Amino acid sequence: MIDGLLYAFLAALSLLVIVPFGHLLAVSLSPAEYSLGGNFFLIPKDFTLEAYKYLLTSSDRFLIAIKNTVYLTVLGTIVNLAVSITLAYGLSKKFLPGRSLMLLLIFFTMIFSAGLIPTYLLVQSLGLLDTYWAIILPGATNAFTVFVMKTFFQGLPESLDEAARIDGAGEVRILLAVVIPLSMPIIATFSLFFMVGHWNQFFQAILYMSDSDKWPIQVLLRQMILSANASIGAEVSSEAMEFQIGNNVKMAAVILALVPIVLVYPFLQKYFASGALLGSVKE
């Protein structure tokens, strides 16, 4: 009886997630007139791929936004992993001078932050506005990631480090040849965190990026969905054609923006739970 109620409850929760995506897909595969007036349906009407064809062949702005997002995601994830791994590995060594003070300062950032305006002024003073570094560098790592990775590294057998040092390896060689291969679960876990975060980058992109040619896909989707006339691109010159698009193209854009990160998830999912758990409980 209880199991049946639990299954019914989980099925209802699943429907709350699945049904909206089913509607998005159905609208994207139907002509624009069927979605006028807020009509709700889960099965495509007069099945057509025109919306996807338009985005992939006629809309340069959409393809540029996808390219920008891929670039931002790849570069940002590499920077995040490089900073997080090296910082966490150094702090995992008790012989590191000033280790306690550094841990205290990192922990301090979990409680207090400078705020939005000081951060913006700092980014502006460094000349990073309208560059992807304005998005990547302020969030190169975070205290949660560093502490979890540090705990994971501390849980690795010290005998491995000692054996490598006896063979003449330095700290960089130990990190690259010994620690990282043994830490793939935790690295894959945070790779997924970082990738999803950069792919869904929205607020900071609006804050720091005024050049529409550098917008990631989430900012472009905002323009498409919120605009009354739904034109791709915030600014269209008088010599350029302004494409008027319907709800089917909007929904197709949302689906296309979801697909890449959804396809990556299954390859990293098996590491997700185990990596986060290991890094959080080992001493």
Folded structure, characterized:
This protein has 13 helices and no strands. It is mostly helical. Helix 1 (2-28) crosses helix 13 (247-281). The chain is globular.
Features:
cell membrane, membrane, ABC transporter permease, 283 residues, transmembrane helix, 2 domains, MetI-like fold, transmembrane, mainly alpha
Given this structure, which CATH class of the largest domain is correct?
Mainly Alpha
Order of helices and strands: HHHHHHHHHHHHH
Alpha-carbon distance between the two ends: 41 Å
> Per the principal axes of the C-alpha atoms, what is the gross shape?
globular
Count of spatially separate domains: 2
Structural class comes to mainly alpha
Can you tell me the CATH architecture of the largest domain? Orthogonal Bundle
**CATH H-level superfamily title of the largest domain:** MetI-like
β-strand number: 0
How is the biggest beta sheet arranged?
none
Mean pLDDT: 82
